[in-house]
Automatic annotation (TrEMBL):
Transmembrane regions: 32-51
Keywords of this entry: Membrane, Transmembrane, Transmembrane helix
Name by which UniProt lists this protein: DUF4492 domain-containing protein
A Pfam family hit: DUF4492
């Protein structure tokens, strides 16, 4: 009696084999993946450095001050909004 792997592992192996065979047969795909990774690098690394300064590090000296500011911003009440609890009528 031979033992076979559970159906879930066979399914995962088939998915792995599908992608492995697909990527190994690519011709234009390698160039496209290089372009995709270059764009992601530009978006996350270059833009963050030049366009998104570290607001909390610049404006607050300690971690406690930063934490208080974030907590205040997350829990402050917005003007004009209605915060109805469960079961309350407008």
């Amino acid at each position: 009696m031979t033992q076979s792997s559970p159906p879930r592992f066979r399914f995962l192996y088939r998915i792995y084999r599908f992608y492995r065979d697909g990527f190994s047969e690519m011709t234009v795909g390698y160039t496209l993946w290089k372009i995709i990774f270059l764009k992601l690098f530009i978006l996350f690394a270059v833009f963050k450095v030049f366009f998104f300064p570290d607001f909390l590090a610049v404006n607050f000296a300690t971690d406690a001050q930063r934490a208080d500011h974030v907590l205040e911003q997350l829990t402050r009440e917005v003007l004009g909004s209605t915060n109805l609890g469960k079961g309350e009528a407008p």
